[in-house]
Amino acid sequence: MKYYAFAIIIYVVTLVGCSNKESVERPVNGVYPHLLKIEKEFVQELDLLAKKDDISSSKEKVKIKEQIFDLIARDTATLSHEFGPLSENEEFDIVTSPDKRLRIYVTDCDTEMGASMNLVQYRDSSGTIHTINAEQYTQQNGNTDAVQLLFEHWSHRIFEFPCKDGTKLYVITFDANLDGELLNHSLTYILATYKIKGNQLEPEEAFVTNDKTTQNIERIFNDSYFWFYPEEQHYDFAEVDSVNNILYVGNEIDNYPIDRYQCFQFNGTHLTEKGESAPFWLHPSLHKYERICYLCTSESHYIRIDDMGQGIYRYASWPRNTRFSDAPSLVIFGKETRIADRGDRFNRALSFVNDGYEYRILLILGRWGLYADEIEILNNGKVIQKTYLE
User: Fold this and answer.
1) 239: closest CA among 252, 222, 227, 251?
2) Of 328, 382, 377, which Cα lies nearest the Cα of 352?
């Protein structure tokens, strides 16, 4: 209990001494020193309790998390503070809008039940900072759906669009799989729209699909969606083309990711569905395909395989120091083939021939389907290079 008592001391000193600190203490590279110090102490105590992993320590962890949220609610500097140790802790998510006026804090409250504890913080049009919990938001706004989204789901990202009236439309993406379990190997995501009106954060019916206006839309993705992009240039199930004010939302066909996106054009007030498109970050020369099959990383290249239909596949590769928006260094077409008498786990491959060289993607059957496992480069039927794929 020694570390827990220390947390209480830190907590009380903080609440007494740092209310409205944002106006009296200047941040250093976006970090408020008094918050960083307390943040580190809280995380150290949570780490100590995590090592115990019993009922008593779990209850104490919840108490400490309540103290952290109480600190956030009382200290206005927290909205501008660049959280480090807390955001790096796997039990917390801190999601902030690009303009840093809206932030959502989420943490596990009961790991066995998968419940979350959420707190919303925003700066209103007068500059006043508000921090609200579910009970306060219910009193402020009777919309039960909006309350459920903000305070019962894990926030994923916040996008923003500048409105004609000078305000911002915020698109918040939520992970609806609260218990962390995959239902039929799928994940549910919800995108919801909000605006800060005067001194309140309110839901906004901004999505227009089939001439119907709604506040949120829902998408269900097969878990295989998440092997799309390497860490160096990650793209998500929803992205924004800020140049053209378009929100891209991922689509699937029969639980297969197709890397084609439903496009919502923002007109200053609403996000209106405008059909389907290839992702804007993919080079225009590659926009025609039926669905993506594999996206892999070798030691030196990114490799993308697309199904073009009628049994034809397209191989495109980029050096690892380039982007998918750049023109690929190599584009060749091929087909599926079977490999006989190999005596190992491979019997299917995608074969691409170019100037006497064959690029062969070896496929392996995994838990939920085929995966690209290796690439072999052959010259005159002889393997001259073999690389494992990530």
Assistant:
1) 251
2) 377
Q: Compute the C-alpha angle 254/259/264, nearest 5°.
A: 100
Structure tokens at 41: 């102490």
Q: Could you identify the residue written with the tokens 């305000």?
A: 167
pLDDT at residue 231, rounded to an integer: 64
Report whether 295 contacts 229 (CB < 8 A): yes
What is the average pLDDT across 122-141? 90
The kind and range of the H/E element at 390 are: none
Q: How does DSSP classify residue 164? A: T
The answer to whether 90 touches 31, Cβ cutoff 8 Å, is: no
| Tens-digit pLDDT profile for residues 219-232 | 877 655 444 566 66
CA distance 296 to 310: 23
Higher local confidence (pLDDT), 17 or 317: 317
Q: How confident is the model at residue 318 (pLDDT cuts 50, 70, 90)?
A: very high
Question: H-type helices in the chain, by residue range?
Answer: 2-17, 33-52, 55-74, 85-88, 134-140, 144-152
Strand partners, 248: 239, 263
Least confident of 108-122, 224-238, 353-367: 224-238
Q: Domain ranges in the chain?
A: 1-90, 96-281, 288-388
Q: What angle do CA 128, 131, 134 make, to 5 degrees?
A: 140
CA quadruple 153, 159, 165, 166: dihedral positive or negative?
A: positive
Q: How many residues does the chain have?
A: 390
Give the integer Cα–Cα distance in Å for 54 and 34: 31
Cα(351)–Cα(338) distance, rounded to whole angstroms? 9
User: Up-side HSE of residue 345: CA atoms within 13 Å toward CB?
Assistant: 10
Average pLDDT over residues 79-98: 92
Taking Cα atoms as reference points, which of 20, 28, 40, 141 lies closest to residue 87? Answer: 40
